[in-house]
Amino acid sequence: MTQPQPLRAAVIQQAAWSDKExxxxxxxxxxxAAASEGKADLVLLxxxxxxxxxxxxxxxxxxxxxxxxxxxxxRRLSELAARHRIVxxxxxxxxxxxxxxxxxxxxxxxxxxxxxxxxKMHIPDDPGFYExxxxxxxxxxxxxxxxxxxxxxxxxxxxxxxxxxDQWYPEAARLMAMAGADxxxxxxxxxxxPQDSAAEQRRQxxxxxxxxxxxxxxxHLPVLVANxxxxxxxxxxxxxGIQFWGNSFIAGPQGELLTQGDAEASGYRVAELEPARxxxxxxxxxxxxxxRVDAYQGLTRRFLTP
Length: 306
Known about the structure:
The chain is α+β, with helices and mostly antiparallel strands. The protein has a single domain (7-300), classed as 4-Layer Sandwich (Nitrilase/N-carbamoyl-D-aminoacid amidohydrolase). 24% of the residues lie in helices and 27% in strands. The chain contains 6 helices and 17 strands. The strands form 4 sheets. It has a 6-stranded mixed beta sheet with strand order 5-4-3-2-1-17. Helix 1 (20-36) packs parallel to helix 2 (72-84) and helix 3 (170-178) runs parallel beside helix 4 (198-219). The mean pLDDT is 95.
């Protein structure tokens, strides 16, 4: 049997602004660097990289930022993938229909063709992260005809693309793995409240990384995580804003850290993935064989009463 070839993958972390032109120009600069200097074949951009993170407040005027999947930002990402001959995973504030908006990951192949999209399924509503005001949860419909948590087929493999808050849910990672994903990808926008203590910030960052590395371990899949950097002010002035913590990383299929960014600098990180290790590890550690699918009915319920 022919073994899958190693894959050079990159994650990008950047600052972003309300000005789409400025934000997309920064994305383009870093993608070009990852493709040329880093020789990446697959590049992951962070969540909502086209603009600032606008969910700190609820403002109906922000809906003007949304675009259809084939709008100007989508076309620009398609051209970027084709220019550098890479598979590119980007992020859009999608206008699907009047009053229906999504937080959507989009995937383009080496020739710029559209491979598919994933609409964020888990939508948070927390202080500073008022996403339920803006985003309708994904409903399992995708333009590539797939349903549910379905990997997106590309020339470098089947990408299990999820988005930010999805990263805390082992169910989402497991379903992507069961559907044949070769790698899990999490475009992200997460940061600290500047009022949190240094110890609390450390605990949050550690938990964020550990949960995603655990998805790699439990499914024997590489994991790519791209988070934004920089401080973004709260437009309402009600809080101190968000200090996005970066630390974008790539982990191997046993959760091993292959590369990691810092908390402040825009840039890219590249690692070489070995897809053949998934098959090797699943033979040694057969989690999928030993799953008790006959005993998991409770997972479809909101909560179990003792």
